[in-house]
Design brief:
- With 685 residues, this protein is α+β, with helices and mostly antiparallel strands.
- The protein is built from 22 helices and 25 strands.
- Strand 5 and strand 6 form a beta hairpin.
- The structure holds zinc ion.
């Protein structure tokens, strides 16, 4: 006799068994569970994600599983990285090449930021590991990796987050470095933006974990042809990161935080926590950490947008939050929906002339834009007071001068923030080759920032900001005596950073304005939408945006292509953007009260340097250097800055300055270690 229960169970098993067998026969075993990482992607985006990425299944993308421990003083980190890569090509791979891009920017003779310690293959394979240059790790498995097969391995690495001194992080500090670059006396390499570093109480980890090298044909790319501009493969991948930090640290990162757990204390150690992050289909993951971060956030179109900033910079940090949210709304409306659930906009200790740096789901804005334009050298109070006083001699003129400077500084902060947020579409969503065709995403990000200004403040203001923040890059290049040239070139072909800035950030963006004027708003924005729709999560080629604009141009296709030739491949910048007159450029950039100070024998040279840094070094255009600084040097004063005379002069007028400036907190780095751990940072509304 068979109990009813047993017979039912048997029947169920009989039903299940064949299907289980079939599933095992048919289904490929997943390389890993990619669906578990999708909390970072908006639900409406998940179904089409694999096909948009151009893969059959999400687990064909590389997975980088990072376990990072950052030390209490933000001076270094340890990293164990587990990698799963699938050979998605038709031929076997004999080796897999990984790149640590931050190491490519390390000046010769300096130790790399990230040191490779050792590696091991998993799944019973044995592999050889070789670091053939600071940024290249070659993995050679015992047998080739067949098409469709995976390689799993672990890498152990150790990183040094070098210290960026406070005086390098200000507008003035970056301006002086820009001048050093012009004179060829700078210590750093172009493209060294301090991505793995700490400064101002903020730790930065970006371009720090090994990623699969870019493929060109059947070769791994191990040489970037120079370091100017953005270095990355831009290839989408998944990341799970477990980040161990001091208990009071606030962490901003790409992706979403899915859990926080206490880490068992070692005796005598400060309490620590482990934060787990999921980031799906991203082009990179960046991490910024500070015990002094506070945040302000908004939600726009279903995405949570958070601004992270130091408590002492809260006015600017709130401004960045406001701009980021407004820009996000403009870009969503103009370019289409954003794919992720979160975006972090983070104050960061950037150097090398970078105004900000873009990553998937996170952008940084340079700390210098959160401080007064003149903060840093001799104290904000003295500098602001000095320059204000020089403007006219009485208090009211001084106040007007300060207001003018503060407005300039805020406008630059606004423009840079909008530019970096725009990169979430032009780079993050629609990828492009930032080495071979840097104009593709940079010119679009610049144009998008002008578009943000237009939608928010009107067309007249957009034209003005365009002159100051976009065309200025071109004029500064021309003032230095560098010729107009082709925009669509590899980053390595520009030679001088100021030519790169002038052409890619200064001239290229106006191509879009020219097309829009010719075809009208409807056709122009339809063209940009087509470009996004066709290339979401892919890498667009240099002709694709032109094709999309031409396709939607309603009968103006030949004209759109002619405009692309004119702006991107020919040399009509002087005709199209107007003459570049040095004195005019400098004076029109300045509040009138300050222009008079250019003639002061002591402060004039300093002011010229500062203005030069704001024009050439501090803008969204990035680099402020060039091969021959003689022309700019002549423009900026022609004389040596006399530090002693400036200090004496500052002393004379310090009193006025102190009444004008806002008080500043003591610097984080001046606190003894015991006082650095305060109460948990609070979130601002
Ligand atoms: Zn950019």
């Amino acid at each position: 006799m068979t109990s009813p229960l047993r017979s039912t169970t048997a029947a169920l098993l009989a039903l299940l068994a064949p299907s289980v067998v079939r599933a095992q026969d048919v289904a490929r075993a997943p390389a890993y569970d990619a669906s578990a990482l999708l909390d970072h992607v908006r639900p409406s985006e998940r179904a089409a994600l694999a096909s948009e990425l151009g893969v059959d299944a999400l687990d064909q993308l590389p997975l980088y599983d990072l376990h990072v421990a950052i030390d209490d003083q933000l001076r270094g980190f340890g990293l164990r990285e587990s990698v799963v890569v699938t050979n998605t090509e038709a031929r076997p791979w004999r080796e897999v090449v990984m790149r640590v891009f931050v190491n490519a920017t390390v000046a010769p003779g300096r130790d790399p930021d990230v040191r490779f310690l050792e590696g091991r293959c998993l799944d019973g394979r044995s592999c050889g590991f070789e670091q053939s240059s600071p940024s290249v790790i070659v993995v050679r498995p015992d047998a080739p990796i067949a098409p469709g097969a995976q390689l799993r391995f672990e890498l152990d690495l150790q990183g040094t987050m070098r210290e960026l001194e406070d005086d390098r992080l200000t507008m003035m500090g970056q301006g002086l470095e820009g001048l050093a670059a012009l004179e060829g006396t700078q210590a750093s390499t172009p493209g060294d933006y301090g991505l793995v570093a700490h400064g101002g109480g903020i730790g930065s980890l970006a371009a720090f974990y090994p990623v699969l090298a870019r493929r060109r044909g059947t070769r791994w790319v191990t040489d970037d042809g120079g370091t100017m501009g953005d270095l990355s493969t831009d290839a989408p991948h998944h990341v799970r990161a477990r980040i161990v930090v001091p208990e009071e640290a606030v962490v901003a990162s790409s992706g979403v935080e899915v859990s926080v757990a206490d880490v068992a204390d070692a005796p005598g150690r400060a309490p620590r926590k482990e934060i787990t992050i999921h980031a799906a289909a991203v082009r990179e993951l960046a991490i910024l950490v500070s015990p002094r971060f506070v945040t302000q956030e908004c939600t726009a179109d279903g995405t949570r947008i958070r601004s992270f900033f130091l408590m002492r910079d809260q006015d600017a940090g709130r401004h960045v939050a406001d701009v980021a949210c407004a820009a996000f709304r403009v870009f969503t409306r103009r370019f289409g929906p954003y794919p992720y659930t979160e975006l972090d906009v983070v104050e960061a200790p950037l150097v090398g002339g970078a105004g900000g740096v873009e990553f998937s789901g996170l952008v940084t804005v340079a700390l210098m834009f959160y401080r007064g334009a003149l903060d840093g050298g001799g104290g904000a109070a003295g500098m602001l007071g000095a320059l204000g006083a020089l403007g006219g001699g009485d208090g009211s003129d001084a106040t007007a001068g300060l207001d003018g400077l503060a407005q300039m500084s805020a406008s630059m902060r606004e423009f840079v923030t909008a530019h970096e947020v725009a990169h979430q579409w032009w780079h993050g969503l629609v990828g492009s080759d930032s080495r071979a065709h840097p104009w593709v995403d940079e010119s679009l990000a610049q144009y998008a920032a002008m578009l943000y200004v237009e939608d928010r403040h009107g067309a007249a203001r957009a034209r003005e900001e365009g002159e100051r923040q976009v065309a200025m890059n071109y004029h500064m290049m021309r003032i230095q005596g560098l010729p107009d040239d082709v925009v669509d070139r590899p980053a390595s072909a520009f030679g001088a950073p100021i030519a790169y800035a002038g052409l890619v950030y200064g001239k290229g963006p106006y191509f879009y304005g020219a097309v829009r004027e010719r075809v009208g708003d409807d056709a122009f924005f339809a063209g940009l939408s087509r470009y996004v729709t066709e290339h979401r999560f892919r890498e667009a080629g240099p002709g694709d945006v032109v094709d999309a604009l031409a396709h939607e141009s309603r009968g103006h296709e030949a004209e759109v292509r002619a405009l692309a030739r004119r702006w991107l491949h020919e040399r009509h910048g002087d005709e199209d953007l107007g003459p570049s007159d040095g004195a005019d450029v400098l004076r029109t950039m300045m509040p009138p009260e300050l222009a008079a100070a250019l003639d002061d024998p002591t402060m004039g040279p300093l002011l010229r340097q500062l203005m030069g840094s704001m024009l050439a070094g501090g803008g969204a255009g990035g680099g402020g250097g060039g091969e021959d600084g003689a022309d700019l040097r002549a423009l900026l004063g022609g004389g040596e800055v006399d530090d002693d005379a400036i200090r004496a002069r500052l002393g004379e007028i310090q009193g006025l300055g102190q009444t004008q400036a806002t008080p500043t907190e003591p610097r984080d780095t001046q606190r003894p270690p015991a006082q650095r751990r305060g109460p948990a940072p609070r979130r601002l509304p």
